[in-house]
Amino acid sequence: MMSKCKSEICKLLLRESFGEVAEEVAFVLLSKGACPLRQISTETCLHIDKVRKVLVVLIQQNIVKFEKSKRGFTEYFVDVEHLLWRHRIPRYIHCAKTLYGDAAELVVEDLVHHGQLMMSSVVHTVTNKLNEALEHAGHQKIGSRVVYDKFNLLAGTHFIQQCLNQMETTGDEEDLDERDLSSLYKVPAFNAKDGDRKRKRSTDESEPPSKRQKMSADNDTVSDDGIYWKINHRRFHQYFRDQLFIKAIHNKIGKKAADILQTMLRLTEVKSDDICFTSNPLSFTEIFQAVPRDLGITRNLCEQYLSLMTDDSMELVSKVGESGGGMFVINIMKGLTALCKSHLESVVQERFGSKSLRIFRVLLLKQHLEQKQIEDLAMIPSKEAKELLYTMFAQNFVAVTEISKTPDHAPARTYYLFKVQLDQLARMLLENSYKALSNAIRKRIAETKENRRLMEKQERVDAILASLEQSGADDVQKEEILLTITPSERSQLQKVKHMINMLDQSELQLDETIFVLETYIFYHDQKMKYRH
Q1: Which of 25, 440, 449, 520 has the fewest CB atoms lying closer than 10 Å?
Q2: In what order do the strands lie in the sheet with 282-283?
Q3: What angle do CA 63, 438, 420 make, to 5 degrees?
Q4: Inter-residue contact 385 to 352 (CB < 8 Å)
Q5: pLDDT score, position 171
Q6: What are the domain boundaries of the chain?
């Protein structure tokens, strides 16, 4: 059953992205579970055609999925994970731009905006956008081959993938075998038919240069078999997780250690499974040869930093053999546990203070302790330690296990052992983070709605100023336009912009915390499943 806080975020994201009607339809599916079309229409009191149109949009965006019920009806249900991940869309686009440049950024942006698209459509749209920008800047146009290569690169590194045909397949990507899974990233061949004839024409000296340039840009075509593509959220999340590991090692050991870890992660990122607890083993020779030479890391230095990482308390890297100069693995589960503990410790310090944090860390280290043992190890006076401990216990940050020496469970003959249940605490804080995120989104929407007239006025003034600059207007005209916004309105605008920027920053930080807690809980649940 989905929690109330998670349900609130889903409703807010739906309303913000698709409007109130889509929110109403999806909320029925969230509350009732899988429903046929007619039931959705009855529950929402909307005409069946309107419901059908909304479902088409949400299916296109990978938010709603469908399957045949036992009675033969087509039932629709919401993929909650895909809906919640919409909040990370700016991070996905920025990640593509950082890794592969502007063309890759536009490819991911186009796929995210439409949900599912054929490759030919993406390549055509992105090529036109880039050529418009290049033409405006006075640069030479590019052919669609450039965008196709970026598309191929994104598919090769699994950041985008083919959509499964829900009419022909059941289940999800996890149910596919390795051969079928690899076919999801296979890109159709680039087709330049009639290329020789066109190239011959484009090099004809009788044609004007501008015409030859336009023809060379338009001649490249992409063969497409009606295959639709979407972004691979899990691959982006894997990259975000790896970046958190790199950042943690950079802060603890140094930049060169982070560079070596980044090399190791790059070597294993596509070879290892999405939910593996440890990466594939890598030999020292393989790691050292893959480290970029311009970093100035010698063989001896690489050995020293690998040794430091294996001895570190985070236990992110472990040595598992001696062949090839030593075999090393990345402990994904231990790394995520360390990151989760770090976030929880930060919350404890902010809420209860540094002495409570000391008690919390002692419990994390020793796992089960009596009250007297906690006082001694944390080096806090008995009365104060008891007060801090029971304050954390009252707010569910600390749990108690009772071990009775007799069947009657008399307090005098019972041991009370305090402990931290990491997974339960992570779930509780995840719910609190969902609540904080929904509050931040609500506040941002309210601030924007309240000051919409003023913000629209500012946009109109900016547009007029831009057109005046293009037409070469004098400063007097510009000054007159600027004076249409009074000093009090300008002051109010600054306050609103500052407030919205603060809320945006809060949403980004909350999303990072949510990502760490969600990833840890996901891996923990998988570990429990494999154990049983």
Answers
A1: 449
A2: 282-283, 327-330, 317-321
A3: 100
A4: no
A5: 52
A6: 4-78, 85-168+181-192+216-231, 236-330, 335-420, 426-531
Residue 285 to residue 267: CA distance in whole angstroms = 13
pLDDT of residue 1: 57
Q: Do the strands 282-283 and 327-330 form a parallel or antiparallel pair, or are they unpaired? A: antiparallel
Cβ contacts of 157 within 8 Å, gap of 6 or more: 235, 269, 270
- Say yes or no: domain 236-330 is CATH 3.30.1510.10: no
**pLDDT score of 456:** 83
Q: What is the pLDDT of residue 213?
A: 44
Is 510 in contact with 440 (CB distance < 8 Å)? yes
| Cβ atoms of residues 163 and 232 within 8 Å | no
Rg (CA), the chain: 29
| Fold classification of 4-78 (topology level) | Arc Repressor Mutant, subunit A (1.10.10)
Half-sphere exposure of 467 (CA within 13 A, CB side): 6
Helices first, then strands: H and E counts in the chain: 24, 13
pLDDT for res 431: 92
**pLDDT attached to residue 187:** 82
Which residue is listed with tokens 């045949």? 68
pLDDT at 197: 37
Instruction: Assign domain 85-168+181-192+216-231 one CATH number from 1.10.287.40, 1.10.10.10, 3.30.70.3460, 1.10.10.410.
Output: 1.10.10.10
Give backbone dihedrals phi and psi of 85, rounded to 5 degrees, phi first.
Answer: -70, -10
Whole-number average pLDDT of the chain: 83
Residue 294 pLDDT: 84
The model carries a pTM of 0.83
Q: Residues 424, 429, 433, 439: what is their CA dihedral angle, to the nearest 10 degrees?
A: 110
In SS3 terms, 451-494 reads as: CHHHHHHHHHHHHHHHHHHHHCCCHHHHHHHHCCCCHHHHHHHH
Interatomic CA distance for residues 76 and 55, integer angstroms: 8
Low-confidence ranges of the chain (pLDDT < 50): 193-207, 209-219
Residue 314: predicted pLDDT: 84
